[in-house]
Design goal:
Bound molecules: S-adenosylmethionine, iron/sulfur cluster
CATH superfamily: Aldolase class I
Shape: globular
CATH class: Alpha Beta
Largest sheet: 9 strands, mixed
CATH topology: TIM Barrel
Radius of gyration: 19 Å
Helix content: 25-40%
CATH architecture: Alpha-Beta Barrel
Strand order of the largest sheet: 6-5-4-3-2-1-7-8-9
Number of helices: 15
Mean pLDDT: 90
Low-confidence stretches: none
Structural class: alpha/beta
Amino acid sequence: MDAFNRSYLRFLGFIAKSVFVPVPIILIWEITYRCNMRCRFCDARLLNGKYYRNEFTTQEGLMLLKQATDMGAKLLYLTGGEPLLREDIGQILRFAKKIGMVTMLGTNGFYLEDKIEQIYKDLDYLRVSIDSLRIHDCIRVCNSAFENALRGIKLAKKMGMNIIINATVTSETIDEMEDLAKFAEDLNCGITLSPLVLKFRGEGNSGIDFSGLLPEYGDYVLSVNRLKEKYPCILNSDPYLSLVRRGGIGYAGIKCKACDIMLSANPQGDIYFPCNTNPVEKINLKMTGELKKVWHSKAANHIRREVKNYNFCKSCMDRCYVLPSLFFSVRGICDFLRHTGHRRRFF
Ligand SMILES: C[S@@+](CC[C@H](N)C(=O)[O-])C[C@H]1O[C@@H](n2cnc3c(N)ncnc32)[C@H](O)[C@@H]1O
Ligand code: SF4
Ligand code: SF4
């Protein structure tokens, strides 16, 4: 049995355990909300100033990682904002690896060349955003965004890193998906074609007008399914695509397990329940000190019971959070078993 299958079986073991007790198997830490870009669809640019100050210090971050692994966390996903803006990113990844976590980081790629020495040894998966071959800089409101990310990807590839390009697909770029897949194939990278979704993070949501930007989801699913036949580098899983086709996790009849198996933390150490897409409750780790207390708090348990009743969950497609939930539903498991022809298609 190869390493991938072994870790998959171990992962299923943890999943089975967390059916009975909530276990934060995946830690999604938005390590900073600071960003050098101002993407038209992203609320990071709209968060107010308090979200840019009082970030967790390095020591506080390491404590979060240690407490999370003590409670069963196996996978760390660092995102933001732009995580490479954190000066201590190398130190944090090194520590995560030392305590046995699988590590993944999402970046816009702008500083990849500068930072690669600090991260490449301790990162299992690097996700780099490339949304378009035509209008990437315009979407990201940043000169040389494409050029810098591409240079970073090429260097990371040379250094032997596992790279997954993430393209956020909007109504403006839906016709470019094949070009993007070809681009990833030529670079020998994986690619996820992720539909733009409505996100309501904290206080940042209100200023974005998504209406003209959301892709036609039915067309999106049909096209990705067609492209997957031709491009094995496309990593979107069938269960996720089928959830998008049905209009969201609630409409697909699946209960979201975000707050049972995932720990969602912001830069200041607020733990979001049920998730950062729609945080009903934020509990600050600095105030309480003990992650276990936060995770098993009355408020968290209340939300776990209520989550099936939240209206906003019906149409939710936020892949980071809903995808692991698919492992728990009978429909999701059947879908996975039917469609695991390409074993890396887990996104
Ligand atoms: C929030 S960013 C953080 C990491 C990094 N700054 C980047 O751009 O990759 C993570 C990913 O979320 C995507 N994203 C942002 N807003 C989104 C939305 N409303 N729907 C879907 N994806 C979104 C971005 O394009 C990016 O690929
Ligand atoms: S998508 Fe990433 S790069 Fe763009 S504004 Fe959001 S955090 Fe910054
Ligand atoms: S369905 Fe979406 S909004 Fe609801 S708990 Fe899950 S991730 Fe959060």
